[in-house]
């Protein structure tokens, strides 16, 4: 047992020695490796430093060359810019000179055109003045001819109006003469009626002289009502009244009343006959005669003649061959 123990311890001591030797060998190899690595590192640092210095020298040389090239290009560019500026200034000066020449030529052309236009305007003004003076002379001649024509027309119209007035005056005179004759016949009939009445009332006895009735003036005869100027044929029935009145007087023994006076028509005389006659003629384009107007409107001869004369004087109607009609200008 003890031998085994001794053998184990011997083997143990041997193994411990072998471990110590291997540790020492490993440490020695590690130290050698560290020395070789340090030597390699130092050599590497030296080679890198040499390479850095070489690269730095090349870079400085390159920068120096680039700076020299840039300076040369800057001097060349400045020279080119200076030359371009000089050329540009020269071109601008030439262009300005050309523009000045063009402007001077344009001003001269404009002045010449203005002078030509002024001359044309003066010529045109003189021509227009001449044409206007001729037109004024022609217009004065036309106006003079027109005025002469108007004067001739007025004179012709005045002659026609005078002739028309003369014919109207003659027609009115004839109407007045006819009315006078009718009035003379009417007075004679009234005298006969008075003699018959006196004979029927008083017989053959001579009555007291009655005061002479005043002779009516001509104006009163003209203003007599229409009923008093009726034709003798219409007054005849009145003359038959005394016979009846005589029988009444004999039966009653009283004085017979005076014969009734003819009824007057003042209402019709007060009617504006001019408007009625004018409206009547407006409804009859072919005109109407004096008797037709009297009978239709129920007016007497004096009223009809006065209304027609007034309308003729107002140039509203005209008379032709005893026919009255509306004047064309009044219709328009």
Automatic annotation (TrEMBL):
Residues 218-230, 254-269 have a biased composition (Low complexity). Keywords: Coiled coil. It comes from the Bacteria. InterPro entries: WH-like_DNA-bd_sf. Residues 207-269 are annotated as: Disordered. Residues 136-196 form a coiled coil. This is Gas vesicle protein GvpC. It comes from Leptolyngbya iicbica LK.
